[in-house]
Design goal:
Layout (H helix, E strand, L loop, with lengths): L1 E8 L3 E8 L7 E10 L2 H10 L1 H4 L14 E8 L11 E4 L6 E5 L6 E3 L6 H4 L2 H14 L7 E4 L3 H12 L5 E5 L2 H9 L4 E4 L5 H9 L3 E6 L7 H7 E9 L11 H6 L4 E4 L16 H13 L9 E6 L3 H10 L6 E5 L3
Parallel strand pairs: 8-9, 8-11, 9-10, 11-12, 12-13, 14-15
Antiparallel strand pairs: 1-2, 3-4, 3-6, 3-15, 4-5, 5-7
């Protein structure tokens, strides 16, 4: 059986390639994808800055990328007990017609509950990242929060902060359309940092600064401004994936105001242990449950559902700026 996948080069240049679809072996599941979802942060890092910014080795110039797919189980290999042909599932494949999932490894494969649209379900991989950041911040009821960058991860972070009882939840971005969406779910206030001083606005809204600040943008250099937004002994969570470096004042903010800066990458969190019970699978399943219950909403965040053959046009749009899009999903033929 032949499948098709997308190959990415900087430019962007996106090509379609045919490949032989493997049959599943013991402990493996073959998924025919109906939708693949764009991770704008990571995938744009590859297109803008090259393979190292995506986590690949230098020189990987023409590759299959992406890690969020939804489809149906087509075949299962010997020894697979919990999945059957026809199950609707979400997994971590590239932009391709098929994904082979090896359950003998710490694989990403979860059933999608009834009532959760496939266009939403693939974004549980970003929901996992956002939820992990909120867990790392240990948010409390009525704790003040500022979220910088209202892309998909920022929007999900604001919703999880709200679900955690935090208030106010302040969304910060440069694009009014994204701020309008943030006010529908999650954010109680928004700030357009292109028109007003975000530090002053957040301090006015909170009184003493935000007790938790989330960096969900692609711009490393704004870290100093985030520190200035934070309350004394506040926490800053780096949930975005900004390449490059940042310059900060060590003494005035970090030292004297005793701030904490926390990275959010989820390395080694496939299985629970005594110090951290919140695995990636548990986060994903929490996202799916909250979607099914109507408590986590992505409907207003999906701006483009396009055939995979339009990938070149879609990524050219993404590279032009963030004005006209948010959640982008590719459809694959059945």
């Amino acid at each position: 059986m032949k499948g098709e996948r997308l190959l990415f080069s900087q430019g962007p240049l996106i090509e379609r390639e045919s490949f032989d679809v493997p049959a599943p072996g013991p402990g493996q599941v073959l998924v025919r994808n109906t939708h693949t979802h764009v991770s704008a942060g990571s995938e744009m890092n590859f297109l803008r800055h090259g393979p190292v910014a995506y986590g690949l080795k230098p020189g990987a110039s023409r590759v299959s990328i992406g890690y969020m797919t939804v489809g149906s189980v087509e075949q299962v290999g010997p020894g697979v007990a919990n999945f059957a042909p026809g199950d609707r599932v979400v997994t971590g494949g590239n932009h391709a017609s098929h994904t082979l999932v090896d359950l003998n490894t710490p694989a990403f494969l979860d059933k999608v509950p009834d009532g959760v649209p496939s266009e939403w379900a693939g974004f549980v991989a970003l929901g996992d990242v956002a939820l992990h950041g909120v867990r790392r911040a240990s948010l409390q009821i009525d704790q003040s929060v500022a979220v910088f960058g209202m892309g998909m991860v920022g929007q999900l972070t604001a919703q999880f902060a709200s679900l955690s009882g935090a208030s106010p939840v302040i969304g910060v971005d440069l694009v009014d359309a994204r701020l309008d969406k943030a006010l529908k779910y999650g954010s109680t206030h928004v700030v357009n940092a292109g028109r007003e001083d975000a530090v002053a606005a957040i301090r006015t809204l909170t009184g003493a600064g935000a007790e938790a600040v989330f960096h969900c943008t692609q711009v490393a250099g704004i870290l100093q401004s985030l520190m200035e937004c934070a309350a004394e002994r506040g926490i800053l969570v780096l949930t975005g994936s900004p390449p490059g470096t940042a310059t900060i004042r060590l003494q005035e903010e970090l030292l004297r105001r005793e701030l904490t800066i926390v990275g959010n990458y989820e390395l080694g969190l496939m299985t629970p242990h005594a110090y951290w019970r919140w695995t990636r699978q548990r986060n994903r399943r929490a996202c799916l449950r909250l979607m099914a219950e109507g408590r986590l909403n992505l409907g207003h965040l999906i701006t483009h559902v396009a055939p995979y053959t339009d990938a070149q046009k879609m990524f050219e749009m993404l590279l032009r700026g963030s004005e006209d899009w948010l959640g982008v999903v590719f459809q694959w033929p059945q």
